[in-house]
Design brief:
Layout (H helix, E strand, L loop, with lengths): L1 E2 L15 E2 L2 H33 L37 H5 L7 H4 L7 E5 L5 H10 L4 E6 L2 H14 L4 E5 L14 E4 L9 H5 L1
Parallel strand pairs: 3-4, 3-6, 4-5
Antiparallel strand pairs: 1-2
Length: about 200
């Protein structure tokens, strides 16, 4: 890779790239990007199907080690009962059914009224809705997801919950579609492990 240096003038902002890649490096990057997109497609397909199951009133997951095509879903002792009944009062059942996480980040995060929260990989919206309740009407809770079916389900759950301080965004957790320094707290519930570029997510 050759770096042509930094430049603040308009002559460096035209069609010419600031950096150029050798052919071998370009092919390597293209292969890596192709693998990342393949992984994203697989994740979208799996979680899109999970959203459809939750929207129809079924559990989004069939339990650890089971196939969702099996006749009966197993109860998973690790990922079941993550949320207290008192905290989920007023939350649509579909939001709980769509929860594919392995924890309850809202129980660990020190959320305060007026704060802005971002949930990476928000799925059906359970953690966003719980966060929105904690930060109150002067705060804001964003959910970020790349799966259209999950976003549709989350927005319906938001509508049914009557949450006005919530916004669901379509995008990838490697490329957060929000300006820098606009979020106070970032949460995520077993989603960063699905990224092919975890270092970028953390940055």
């Amino acid at each position: 890779m050759t770096d042509t240096g930094s430049c603040c003038g308009p002559e460096c902002c035209g069609d010419e790239p600031v950096t150029t890649l050798t052919r071998g490096r370009t092919e390597e990057v293209a292969t890596s990007l192709g693998a990342q997109e393949t992984l994203r497609d697989e994740v979208r397909a799996k979680y899109g199907a999970a959203a459809k199951r939750a929207a129809s009133g079924q559990n989004a997951t069939c339990g650890c080690g089971t196939s969702c095509s099996s006749k009966s879903a197993e109860w998973d002792p690790i990922t079941s009962n993550l949320y207290e009944a008192a905290e989920t009062e007023g939350i649509p059942a579909e939001a709980l059914l769509a929860s594919l996480g392995c924890g309850n980040p809202t129980a660990l995060a020190a959320l305060a009224p007026g704060e802005t929260v971002l949930d990476l990989g928000s799925g059906g919206g359970i953690d966003v809705l719980l966060s929105a309740h904690r930060v109150g009407p002067t705060g804001k809770a964003y959910g970020l997801d790349m799966t259209d079916e999950m976003l549709a389900l989350a927005r319906e759950n938001q509508r049914r919950a009557g949450a006005t301080n919530v916004e669901f965004l379509r995008g990838e957790i490697e490329n957060i579609p929000l300006p820098a320094e606009t979020v106070d707290v970032i949460i995520s519930n077993c989603v960063i492990n699905l990224s092919a570029d975890k270092a970028r997510v953390i940055r």
